[in-house]
């Protein structure tokens, strides 16, 4: 985080409370432009809430979120999308009554006012994520893998600088995961910065240069994936207190 | 669909309807057609918000009555020219729509809550119009009979018919243009999934306000034309639930979120009403009961309305006739 002058996005001491529950607790980190960063942690760690905070669907109780140095904390989701932040939803949210290309065009309209331009852009994005053949199919009729691609495509069509991917691999079989990994990598190579929540650890190890670990709302570790997965605090967060010591004892 | 086809169909249908008065219909028939067109117009306004936007209003009478009363008051009380009053009434309708929309959408109302709030507004307007002398109280406002084209009053019903038809046609062209625009894509996206739309940069409040303002303006135009045709408006005619119901029945039965739905539905309902009254005229409220039954049938079995049913029948017919045609060729 100390590398760049201003990070692309910086989360500064952000806390989010829902009544008595502290979902996100004083989290601070920065993300430089370029690269894929993983956000991992056990269920209920606050990962999706953190995404919602960055994308503007929730307002932080305390703290600030800056994007390209600008304070975004008070802005609604659509203004953040315009600024260049896009998100996907963990539970896919297709516009079920529309075709694939019409779905993507809603995202494309953000930077293309004319219908024809938006549809052209949408067709292009559909190709890029591997939905070229389904472009005129009804979104409601897509497979799970197809819907995940659609979710990705719509976000991508807004031409974001920061892409928040909330478990885009969940529910996919290994061969479908293998198919979509190159797509995500190609987005990074195209200059999009990616922050991804993911439970499929193999994919995290494979894709991410940097990993943040959240547990019970707190950021407990960050660093390279291999180093983080060996961190005693991280192992304990997943497997319970004392687990790290027990594992060490077992393996000698 | 190509632009020529998309707009050409509307122009063709309107041109066909324009021939009706030339066939020398009876006054009763023409009168019924004018009413059906007024319902189609009011229903087109409702359809933009309810059909495309998924925001079901139960109180479009608020806008219909606003159009009717605004035009009547401007003419009778302030001596404004009828054509100017007509235009101003539409603008006032849009403003009232925007304000009701702002109050409802800002607090995130949708579904049955939005329906109830709009119903409440229409009822409040009705009660105020009924009680306040400014609105003419219970007897309402009667416009002076002064038949001059410059005064928006005509001897022949055919002229009213053509004006109503022109407004319906214009509205259908506008709807088609919206379907093919960013605004249309955003309105439909909000209907399908508002949160997903927001994440893609859609300012849902602004889009919904545009939709309701335009929707209200169109329905207000129907109200203003109504007052020009009957030269009378009172609380029950302007703000009564009858128009709220007709304005939503027509597009739902004709085809929700389609350009032709409101016109199809309004004509069908009108013919059906005439037919039942002719057959079982003695039974009070029989036509309303029949409409209710029809509404249930459409919602249960044909969510895309008459237009959808016709489309499916057409597809099935062409499929059935297609194989022999191929055999004949080979």
SSE topology string of chain A: EEEHEEHEHHHEHEHEEHHH
Structural class of chain B: mainly alpha
What is the number of beta strands of chain A?
10
**What is the C-alpha radius of gyration of chain B, as a whole number of Å?**
21 Å
Based on the structure given, which CATH architecture of the largest domain in chain A is correct?
3-Layer(aba) Sandwich
Strand content of chain A: 15-25%
Strand order of the largest sheet of chain B: 1-2
Largest interface: A-B, 30 and 20 residues
- In whole angstroms, the N-to-C terminal distance of chain B is 31 Å
Specify the CATH class of chain B: Mainly Alpha
CATH class of the largest domain in chain A: Alpha Beta
Characterise the protein shown here:
The complex is a heterodimer of chains A (252) and B (330). Chain A has 252 residues and is α/β, with parallel strands linked by helices. Chain A has two domains: 1-84 and 160-252, Rossmann fold, CATH 3.40.50; 91-159. Helices cover 39% and strands 23% of the residues of chain A. In chain A, the strands form two sheets. Chain A has a six-stranded mixed β-sheet, sandwiched between helices. In chain A, strands 2-1-4-5 form a four-stranded antiparallel β-sheet, with helices on one face. In chain A, helix 6 (174-189) links the parallel strand 7 (162-166) and strand 8. The longest helix of chain A is centred in the last third of the chain and has 16 residues, at 174-189. Chain A is globular. The two termini of chain A are 35 Å apart. The model of chain A has no long low-confidence stretch (mean pLDDT 91). Chain B has 330 residues and is mainly α. Chain B has a single domain, classed as ABC transporter involved in vitamin B12 uptake, BtuC (Orthogonal Bundle), CATH 1.10.3470. Helices cover 77% and strands 1% of the residues of chain B. Chain B has helices spanning 3-18, 27-52, 61-78, 82-106, 111-131, 157-179, 182-192, 194-199, 204-230, 235-239, 241-254, 261-280, 286-301, 305-329; strands at 141-142, 232-233. Chain B has a two-stranded antiparallel sheet. In chain B, helix 2 packs across helix 12 and helix 4 (82-106) packs antiparallel against helix 9. The longest helix of chain B has 27 residues, at 204-230. The A-B interface holds A 55, 57, 76-78, 81-82, 86-87, 89, 93-98, 102, 105-107, 109-110, 113-115, 118, 154-155, 157-158 and B 180-182, 185-186, 188-189, 191-193, 195-204.
